[in-house]
Amino acid sequence: MKVLITFFLLVFNLTLFAQSNQFAGEYSRSLSEKEKHTIEYKLTLNPDGTFVFHSYSKLQDGNPTEDNKYGKGKWSAKDNLITFSANKKEDLDSKYTLDFNNSTARFITKNSRDKSDKVVKTKLQFLKSEIFWMNSIDVFKL
Question: Does the keyword Signal apply (predicted)?
Fold first, then answer.
């Protein structure tokens, strides 16, 4: 009986791990306008449930003209929703200033049952965030 329970727990944990691997990876987005403005986002979701975010902007008439912003913390998935959190004591410092608490993104990919030729890029679409410019941002899986 103990062996059977251990087996079921092992299978259950492997299933959970496999589902988070679906979301884990690097996501990116680059926006530019004829060498005048560049905005780049890079988000890395690690399989261990941590993430790192980097935003780079170079604006021709901006002040400052170049800016780097960083964030890190933990992520978790339920269905196709990714929830981000940051521990203010451990994850925020002089470099990592973006607080991703209360941020949520939807994982979007082509449905496995869809046999059409329609191309759907795998992406994360931010639904809500206390970082105002992150709302409605799409980052695509590399």
Answer: yes
Distance in angstroms (rounded) separating the CA atoms of residues 81 and 106 = 5
Instruction: Give me the residue label for tokens 């530019």.
Output: 32
Closest to 65 measured CA to CA, from 76, 57, 54: 57
Cis peptide before 47 (omega within 30 of 0): no
Q: What is the 3-state secondary structure (H, E, C) of the chain?
A: CHHHHHHHHHHHHHHHHHHHHHHCEEEEEEEEECCCEEEEEEEEECCCCEEEEEEEEEECCCCCCEEEEEEEEEEEEECCEEEEECCCCCCCCCCEEECCCCEEEEEECCCCCCCCCCCCCCEEEEEECCCHHHCCCEEEEC
Asked if 28 and 121 touch (Cβ cutoff 8 Å), the reply is: no
Which of 9-13, 72-76, 78-82, 136-140 bottoms out in mean pLDDT, i.e. has the lowest? Answer: 9-13
**Statement: the pTM of the whole predicted model exceeds 0.90:** no
Radius of gyration of the chain (CA): 18
- Give me the domains of the chain, ranges plus CATH numbers: 2-141 (2.40.128.300)
